[in-house]
Every structure is written in C-alpha cells, then in structure tokens.
Amino acid sequence: MNILIVYAHPDPQSLNASLKDYAVRHLQAGGHTVQVSDLYAMEWNAILQADEIPERADHRADILREQEKLRWANTVIFQFPLWWFSMPAIMKGWVERVYTLGFGYGVGEHSDQRWGDRYGEGTLAGKRAMLLVTAGGWESHYSPRGINGAIDELLFPIHHGILFYPGMEVLPPFLLYRTGRMNEALFAEACARLGQRLDTLATTAPIPFRRQNDGDYDIPAMTLKATLAPGAQGFKAHLAQPPSLL
Amino acid sequence: MNILIVYAHPDPQSLNASLKDYAVRHLQAGGHTVQVSDLYAMEWNAILQADEIPERADHRADILREQEKLRWANTVIFQFPLWWFSMPAIMKGWVERVYTLGFGYGVGEHSDQRWGDRYGEGTLAGKRAMLLVTAGGWESHYSPRGINGAIDELLFPIHHGILFYPGMEVLPPFLLYRTGRMNEALFAEACARLGQRLDTLATTAPIPFRRQNDGDYDIPAMTLKATLAPGAQGFKAHLAQPPSLL
C-alpha cells in the first residue's frame, strides 16, 4: 500500500519522532511505500490567507504537493500530540489550506435534493485514515466520565469532520497516554501495539459513521431521520451501530 | 469593564470584520474599555516551537503582551469563523503559545490529592469568556441530530478545555449561521442580537461546568464520582445541571 503520514511535532528528539520513525521502518519492512509530511521540518505555512479563500483561490505549489500525496495514498495516518484537546495549529492549518474548494469540500452536486459528496463520499473516498495521538494525561482522564472529556468525543470533530467529510473511512485511533513517564520498556510496548495496528490497516473495521447520502438524513435540513435511533442526540447519533464508548 | 476580543479572520472586508467592528463600537458606547488582538493583522506567529516547550520556555515578547492583555481583561471574547469544526489555526496557535506552563497550565499544587488549579480555578479565575462564532452551514446542520454534530459538543473542547481550564467562567456562545446569505436586514438583526449579548456579559448565567476541586471528581483518576449523574457519559457528564441541548 501507499501510506502517507502527516506528522506534527516540533522536536526531532521527541517521543513522537521516535514513534514516527518506528512506524516508517515497520511499514517499509512490511513492503509498503511511505511518504511523510513532517510539517515542522517542512516549515509548513499554516495560515490560510484571504486570497486563498474559495473563489479567489490561486492554489500554491505547497498545497498542490500535499493534495497529490493524498491522491497517491491508500491510507493516511495523522500523527500528533494532543494539544489543548485537539491537533496542533500547524496541522489544523494544513487542513485549512490543503482542503480547498472542490477538493476538500464543495465536491459534487449541491441542490435541494443533494448537499454534495461528503461524509463518506468525496475526493478521498476509498481511502482509509487513522489518528496516532499522544497525550500527557492519564487514560482515565479521557475515559467516558474522565474530566478532560471522553476521547471519542474529543476526536469526533477530527474523525467525522476532517477525515470522514472528504470521504475517508476512519479507523479507531491509536492512543498513547501518560507520555511523561515513558521509558524503554513502555516504549517497546507502545511500538508492539502500534505495529499490530499498522499490520492491520487494511482489515480493521472502521468507525461506523453514517453516510450522508445513504438515506439516513433529511435533506436539506441534514438532520438524522426521526425513525432512526429515536431520542439519540449529539455525536453518537451519527454512528450506525451503538457505540461502545460514547 | 475591560474587554479583550481575540479575533481571527483574514479578510478585513468580511462579515466577521463587520461584526467585530460593531462589537467594539457597541462596547465602547456602553462605557467599556476594549482591546482587540486581531491575529491576522498582527501577523501572529501561530507555530509553537520546540524551544518554547515547557521547561525550555524563554517567553517571547509577543506572548507576554497577550498574557498581559488577558490579566487586564474582565471578559474575553474569542471571535472566529468555524473552520473544519473548530477555531482557525492562527487562533489555536495563539492558545498554544500564550497558555504557557505556569500561566495556562501547571498552576497550583500537583500531588496525589490535588491535580493543580484548573477547570474553574487558575490564572484566569474570576474572568468571563464568550465565543462569537460564525458558520456557513445552517443551524439545523448543527442541531442535536444535525449531521455536522451538535454545536454544544463541537465547542466543548474549546469551552471546557481552553476557556474553563485556566479558570474562566464560560458564557453560552453567540452563534451566527448561514453566513453566505447575509444581507443588510440580516446583518442588522445579527447586530441587534449581538448587542443584547454584549449588554449582558456581566449578568448572563455561565455554562454550569463542574469545578475540578469542588469534590465532584475522584483524584487522581479524575473521573466523575460514581454517585453523581450515575450512568452519564461523555461531555454532558461535566455539566452540574442537566443540559438543554446535549
């Protein structure tokens, strides 16, 4: 497979850098072709400017290169440390600039009957995506009743709104907590667990998000039909099967 | 009151710019003192670098200026267009760089009995915060069963994880949808509604997030005590009163 790793960490001596290097080696040893967009090393321009906004967009070379990598990839891994409960700004700015009108959104027919190809359809349909996220806090802090908010809900805007939106299937995330207490044994354990996930990228069942255009939503209100999961509200309503964690 | 508006939109001709200008004029006419951090106009450096990470931090002048504005303010308004279901990268990078160790996090005693001053306590305790968010989509798309995800849940990582975390009380957001169909009458309507919210910044009831150190959470697991809201999971578990929208 062709695998793209979009990677954001400023420190080449970091745990994230070691995990990224491990992932590249492991995937290459498995016969895959890997490209890495190392956003800090590339000095990625993360700031969407007014003259790049939709109708005025004059796509720049850096954006076109990233779009080409996305088209090339079968699977895309987004790797980052959880900063303030989301992705680092440099990666958010990658999304904002690379997901241009006609590529990341505004794809397909828009009418009273159809609100474009998105949420399961779009430019990146047929590809798979997975988050690889590290956090300093404990796993319990991100558990269903943990004070930071349940990790599944914290990642929903990325999983559903950034990965599923332009059509990718979204695999359950690879999560590593308590990064501050890392040592050699724990790192080896993390690599073993990550290796298993990398070996099963093609076969792991994706998160069962409901597809926009398969009949589950009223259009143009874009609300879940009253007959489906009656009473369900919030993020979990957009899962076709009962969630295990939400 | 002293009011800080942290503002992110690249286009000075935009709806967001007009709303920001209205807010400044309205607040000043009401006798308030207003400062605006216009992140695009300031060419804010949004990229946290390795040499700014905690222990190595050598706080830069731009960071200190923003921290000083936060200390000065009684109320902080964060204004931005919703891009990919969160704040623009330039504002996320403002949070990452301005919320330094000892200012935005790592405040207060950390032990087995206490996990610092956060979630209701911290450097910004006693202040109020409000989001002012515009979205291109319809309100129904962000309703409790809307395809984009309920807006209360989409904003939770910001409300709870960025505003409440360092101690601010969080007011319900000011939201403006369908920005693409704006006209003079709709703009006047939006300003009237915004004016009401600005006139009641000091009296509006905040979102009733549970405070970390008031006894609701087990420490150090930091999970909601089993006796409280039994069965509740996810974001809504962190509200002390039943949510209206979640």
TrEMBL record, chains A, B:
GO terms for molecular function: NAD(P)H dehydrogenase (quinone) activity. This is NAD(P)H dehydrogenase (Quinone). Coiled coil: none annotated. Belongs to the NAD(P)H dehydrogenase (quinone) family. One of its GO terms (cellular component) is cytosol. PANTHER family: NAD P H OXIDOREDUCTASE-RELATED, NAD(P)H DEHYDROGENASE [QUINONE] 1 ISOFORM 1. Residues 1-198 form the Flavodoxin-like fold domain. Keywords: Oxidoreductase. It comes from Duganella sacchari. Signal peptide: none annotated. SUPFAM superfamilies: Flavoproteins (SSF52218).
